[in-house]
Amino acid sequence: MSKRSNWAVPYLIFLVIFVALPLILIVVYAFQGQDGGFTFKNVTNFFTDGDALNTFAVSIEVAIENTLICLLLGYPAAYILANKDLNKSAVTVILFILPMWINALMRTLATAELFNVLGFSLGKGTLLFGLVYDYLPFMIYPIYNVLLKMDTSYAEAAADLGATPVQVFGKVTLPLSMPGISSGILMVFMPTVSTFAISEFLTNNKIKLFGTIIQENINSSMWNYGAALSLIMLLIIGLTTLLLGGDKENAVEGGTV
Amino acid sequence: MMKKLLAKTYIWILLVLLYVPIIFIGVFSFTEAKTLGNWTGFSMELYKNIFSGSVGGGTSLMAAIKNTLVIAVIAAAVSTILGTVSAIGIFNMRGRKKNTIQFLNNIPMINPDVITGVSLFLLFVFLHFSQGYLTVILAHITFCTPYVVLSVMPKLGQMNPNIYEAALDLGATPAQALRKVLVPQLRPGMVSGFILAFTMSLDDFAVTFFTRGTIGLETLSTYIYADARKGGLTPELRPLMTLIFTIILILLIVMNVRQGRSKDGQKPIIPVK
Questions:
Q1: What is the pLDDT of residue B273?
Q2: How far is A48 from chain B (nearest CA, A)?
Q3: Residue A71 is part of a domain; what is its CATH number?
Q4: Which chain A residues are Cβ-neighbours of B31 within 8 angstroms?
Q5: Where are the alpha helices (H) located in A50-177, listed in sequence order?
Q6: A87 and B14: CB-CB below 8 Å?
């Protein structure tokens, strides 16, 4: 028995080299100056770098808007899909999951081209539409999962005891679906902040998101500053995960379709 | 009744919105026009161009397709083997060691692509490892293997552990027991894991972008990125996107039907960005 647990040792070594060490290197490079010595300069530079600060603020704003729209559109969809009276077909669920598998870059370009052909000018509006289009399935799926597993007898009991349908939803169904909402927010908010390439295509280079700033610095050999920005990104990831207490693993494992 | 109609309408409006851009590309893959949105009559010319290799932009698109497939096949194969062996190991682990490895296994799934890409880029810089084909494949193995581990784990839970022990007692070497007893039982999870890893690798843009170095290695995603930056997509990308979408659609349906048939409660695993 104990012998077979050794089978994971090569992978453990692999994970240390390719997962743990790279993350440690982000921290190391973030606090390293041009001369190789320790410095806080890269991190403090961020707070005086107007371009980066502005992009950061815009990214957070766009990510919040995107998350809210996805939640407002996605919750009813998840509710309908998980309700056996309203939806009996597993195919509709698969149809919602499918776009998650298509390269986001391709889907984005298709959307941008469609806007061009329809004559919309590319800007904030098209950016939000494209982002909602990209991330909506990631909001629907975890909520759908939680609703599907929910014990319906609670809602029935509340109704039997005289609660109105609105009360049943507000006091029973919604609170019970909070874990799915947290996972959904986690899966939409963070990737939106770190998006790169997508926002440029959807806005004709008018709006940049935080991922692009990281990419620009890394590509122009500003590794230390790029690492500092990545570290800030990592801190935000840690913070949102902590705040939401969300469990992305749950979402990954999914539910029966 | 009214409620049901309303619900159905809502779902279908959302679905139509989700699929309009994809269908739009699909429809215009059957016409030759250089600019998207112009319909110059039905034509299979763009599809022919892809398969004959005579693509407008020279041979680079064909090279990018080849690179994408080679990387995806190698990364998926290695991830499947590494992930399966590790899942068996992790399944038999206890306590803190198990928690540590599971925690590390989750990180590539939780991290946004940009962070995975940048962190691996820094690793290769740090190790003075020249970046190219090999580093892209290693990076893809890094983000694919966790999904294989997750696909194989439930199969281990359903398996009777005594069968493996019995094979050993009856004189099989561990290698024989692995090949003849474990692998056949884990195969459904391994196949799902392979398909997952393959599509994840096929789809990746950000991680490839950061780890491909400066030797001019292009995959389909990086090619599309460069092409779109130049303004205007190569017309041949339309049929190509359509083909990729159709292939992924078929793979996913096959995967779901397989899982539906096995009726063992195996759940589909979704990609997380």
A1: 40
A2: 23
A3: 1.10.3720.10
A4: none
A5: 50-82, 90-97, 104-118, 124-149, 153-160, 165-168, 174-176
A6: no
